[in-house]
Design goal:
elongated, 2 domains, four-stranded antiparallel sheet, 291 residues, 8 strands, 10 helices, alpha+beta
Length: 291
């Protein structure tokens, strides 16, 4: 469907090339370090690289979380290598390639392929954009703290800085346990077409999956400014799609990104798919009225 699979193949190729292009940079950065530090750094780098590569080869919502958590670490590792003494040319090549790979990993096309890979039968899933308030800093800060702790803790232990290394490593484990499921929720937010109707699955806005039968969906359209439709976008940035219901419906809302908690009756609602136009194209393909 669409041409999204080409983006996934591009990501696979870029990530595979990174092992070749990045090797001189990281080898230069580790040159002269103690044997233990070299071993720990090499194991960590190769483990991260293999994990992302396998995730790209087996698309699924969990794999999407893995890719989007680890891929941004590649350009950061390249910058660290440059500071640690890698050659300018090797470091620049590694950083540039890693940055492009991280950008591709974050595209809507890659997200769609990974989410759709877990679909059942005649089901089409569309990933929803992240909540706007989270993009204003919390996601970035949480990722940086987790990456810093996970990267420096084992290296400090390898350098025999036992106390600080143990504390930082323990903090990294605790952060991974606490933040991992929260990051994964972003890959579990979907608008879904099924044979019987449409479904909204969003654990950040709904405490229960919302399902609407096909006869109850009057139309779909790009939302206009000032619409009175119930906002289920989690205040995501960018255009929204409005789903108008013929006889109304009930959803169970809850969480910091929606007003109120509990069951509410709605006549129309807004969602924030990463590719609104593709949602409307799929709606037309399934013979839904599209305005």
């Amino acid at each position: 469907m669409f041409s999204s699979t080409r983006w996934v193949w591009l990501l696979r190729v870029l990530w595979a090339l990174l092992a070749v292009v990045g090797l001189p940079a990281f080898a230069g950065a580790l040159d002269g370090r103690s044997g233990a530090v070299q071993v720990v750094a090499a194991v960590g780098l190769w483990l991260g690289w293999v994990t992302v590569l396998v995730a790209t080869l087996v698309p699924s919502p969990p794999s999407l979380t893995v890719v989007r958590l680890l891929a941004p670490g590649a350009p950061v590792a390249g910058v660290v290598a440059a500071v640690a003494g890698a050659g300018a040319v090797a470091a620049t090549a590694a950083i540039a390639l890693a940055l492009v790979a991280a950008i591709v990993a974050g595209t809507a096309d890659v997200g769609w392929v990974f989410v759709q890979a877990g679909a059942y039968g005649d089901e089409t899933r569309f990933l929803l954009r992240p909540p706007g308030p989270l993009l204003a800093g919390p996601i970035e800060v949480a990722w940086l703290v987790l990456a810093a702790a996970a990267g420096t803790g084992p290296l400090l232990l390898a350098a025999h800085v036992w106390l600080v290394g143990a504390v930082v490593t323990a903090a990294a484990v605790a952060l991974a346990v606490a933040l991992g499921p929260r990051f994964h929720r972003l890959a579990l937010r979907w608008f879904v077409f099924v044979p019987a109707g449409v479904v909204v699955r969003d654990p950040l806005v709904l405490t229960d999956t919302a399902m609407f039968r096909r006869p109850d969906v009057r139309s779909l359209a790009l939302a206009l400014e000032g619409t009175a439709a119930t906002d289920l976008t989690a205040r995501a940035l960018g255009p929204a799609v409005e789903v108008d219901l013929a006889g109304g419906g009930t959803v169970t809302v809850g969480g910091p990104f929606v007003d109120g908690n509990g069951n509410i009756t709605i006549d129309a609602f807004l969602i924030s798919p990463s590719r609104p136009g593709r949602v409307l194209t799929e709606a037309e393909r399934r013979a839904y009225p599209v305005r």
